[in-house]
Amino acid sequence: MTTADKGIGPSEALAKLFTPEGKREPYGLYEALKELGPVVRLGPKLVFVLGYDACAGALREPGLLVTDAAAHRKTGMIEHSSWQCFTKIMMFSNDHHHERLKGFSRWAYHPRTISGLEPMISAKANALAERLATLDGDSVDLVEGYSSRLTLAVTGELYGIPASDQIALRSVITDTTPAFEPIFDLRELAAGDSGMDVLVDYMATLAADRRKNPRDDLTTRMVREADATGAISTEELVAGLVMFLIAGVQSPSDLIAGAVRMALTEPDQFQTGEIESFLTEVLRFDPPSQVLTRIAGTDLTLDGVPVQAGARVLVMLAAANRDPARFTEPEVFKPRRAPNRPLSFGVGLHYCLGAQLARIQATVGLTTLTGTYPRMSLASEPRYRDQLVQRGLARLEVDLKRSQRHR
């Protein structure tokens, strides 16, 4: 909790949480809200879930549904490009639609497949780390120059996106992520809609090209399977490709940048030989995915609190990851804590399909960068995007200490 947030009450914390200041520093506000309990009902149609066990239970509760097309018809968001696309993907589908869409693409993220990608990821990370040494200026922005370029390069390799197109897509991908935020005015979706239009057109064109000119990439394989089985429509195929592009680039990039920040601000805690436990603690302490939204499909009870059908339930993953009932000294960054099972990738049916790939990219990205520039340090205060749900750094400027790099 920041000094400014000490002594803040739950009502004030709630009012502040969705402001720019609250989004930059949400953790003290989560703590204030927990004074009301692990599950907080803020009226008949809004519920916050804050405790670890309560969040895990909510994500496994069959009566809580993701915000699918039916939910967004009621909000008006279905009229916007962002959600016209998102509601055609497995992440925002329920019941048999979710199983159908997930079953179509699950093979692409099989653990054996993902494990075999490490040499490719390592080669791209090494090339990008070496590129940093050629940039002008005393400091570099690692979000622009490294983390986002790495995850774009990896996703581009997997889906056959030419390197010449990748950088132009980066800002467009980031533009779509505010659509995941609580929207108080539908005009807030304008940038996301514009970005989504670009991505849908791009991936539709890529899929059409692979249908005529197949290559050894996931886009070609997915096009072939969709055409051969009829398991998904063309619109669902394109939406799925857009989802894999956004999810494959943004969250892993945020994780890499966040891990580098923690390695530089907590150098005594960073040991390359314990990288897995370090990344797990980063995921607990400051996860990219902070909040998941569910809709109560029926009347139900969460941790003893009645929830009405139709209520919006905000599952606060980042608050759960700092629950003192689950983690000793949760406000302290301790990579060696055990057990350490944060909820950052979710649990249950909607557990993140790309979790293993994100972790491998973060492992390789962090070890490559810190191994190449062992003396690098922060050049300025890291700056976060104005987002709560998909939290991530907008800029991470560092002094690489190029003269002391390992070659």
From TrEMBL:
Annotated Pfam families: p450 (PF00067)
Keyword Nucleotide-binding: no
Key word Iron present: yes
Record keywords, A-Z: Heme, Iron, Metal-binding, Monooxygenase, Oxidoreductase
GO function terms (MF aspect): heme binding; iron ion binding; monooxygenase activity; oxidoreductase activity, acting on paired donors, with incorporation or reduction of molecular oxygen
PROSITE patterns, sorted: CYTOCHROME_P450
Family membership noted in the UniProt record: Belongs to the cytochrome P450 family.
Identification of the protein by name: Cytochrome
Organism: Amycolatopsis orientalis (Nocardia orientalis)
